[in-house]
Amino acid sequence: MSDPGQGTIIYNRPTALPGIDVMRVRQNSQCWRVFHEHYVICSCRVAAAYWRYRRKDHFVTDMSHMLIEPGETHANTAILKPADFTVLWIPPAILEDAARELGHPQAPHFRHPQVSDHVLFRELASLYAAIEQGGTPLEQESRFAHCLRVLLEHHAEHTPPTGPVHRERRAIERAKRYIRDHFNEVIPLGELSRVIGLSRFHLLRSFTEQVGLPPHSYQIRLRAERARILLQHGVTLSEAALSTGFADQSHLTRHFRQILGITPGRYVALTSQSRRRGRRYTQPRTGRLQAITP
């Protein structure tokens, strides 16, 4: 995993904001291809890179945000200069609850995958400073709420979409939901096709275009993510493999490392070190993760 292009990576899981993860990255030149189960805000302070998302190519620049929705994949296709950026992972339930509080009942959908919003940038910077400097829980929760309000009021759709394209999107959402509900089971393609009402060929094409992965790869990534959560809570590697639908430990290990870039054993070692409240992890230029105190 040693790569001079990785720069410095710092992870933070603030105890005042359960479920929220933050990753700060500095001087990074690697091409990322990432599957997301959460809503993601990637705030790029310094960037010049091409990236692909939802069948379209985008160019991210300084002081811009990438907005990514759950169950989707983004991929960098070219990096023109080392980037400094911060990633905020928000579980869907948290953003959906915030949307309901603001009077928007449907699950949030971002109008654009990339935006330049200095107000959002300022609010996020204040949140990250409060987290890293050990602000009180009230301060961290308040700043996080401000970020959610700006994100939802400025960048989320507030009327249900209509039309053939959106009906197809809803069909793929049903497919994703069905795979999530049966992630550790064998799912025949014909069964998935019947559930969502699209032909096998239409399903495969639309799913891959919208999600960035074919259905079988999406299921594997769901299994790896569920296994990661089980390992984080002390479940053994063999139990995690069987519970999430992998054939055995080696099957899980192979996919876990391919998807997350780290072996399950190494991940468990890091997770066990993180149980002291407020601890962060940094990945220096060597690519190894090390614990540091806040």
What does this structure look like?
The protein has about 290 residues and is of the alpha+beta class. The chain has 2 domains: about 5-160, Jelly Rolls (Sandwich), CATH 2.60.120.10; about 165-270, Orthogonal Bundle (Arc Repressor Mutant, subunit A), CATH 1.10.10.60. It has 10 helices and 12 strands. The strands form 2 sheets. Strands 10-7-4-9-2-1-11-12 form an 8-stranded antiparallel beta sheet. Helix 2 runs antiparallel to helix 3 (about 135-155), helix 4 packs across helix 5 (about 190-195) and helix 4 (about 165-180) packs across helix 7 (about 215-230). The longest helix has 19 residues, at about 135-155. About 30% of the residues are buried.
Helix content: 40-55%
Overall pLDDT level? 84
Q: Helix-strand pattern, N to C?
A: EEEEEEEEEHEHHHHHHHHHEE
CATH topology title of the largest domain:
Jelly Rolls
Report the portion of residues in β strands.
15-25%
Amino- and carboxy-terminal Cα gap:
25 Å
List strands and helices in order, with pairings.
Layout: E1 8-12, E2 21-28, E3 33-36, E4 39-46, E5 49-53, E6 56-60, E7 64-68, E8 72-79, E9 83-90, H1 92-101, E10 114-115, H2 118-132, H3 137-155, H4 164-181, H5 189-196, H6 200-211, H7 215-232, H8 237-243, H9 249-260, H10 264-273, E11 280-283, E12 290-292
Antiparallel strand pairs: 1-2, 1-11, 2-9, 3-8, 4-7, 4-9, 5-6, 5-8, 7-10, 11-12
Helix pairs in contact: 2-3, 4-5, 4-6, 4-7, 7-8, 7-9
Features:
Arc Repressor Mutant, subunit A, 8-stranded antiparallel beta sheet, 2 domains, Jelly Rolls, globular, 4-stranded antiparallel beta sheet, alpha+beta, 294 residues
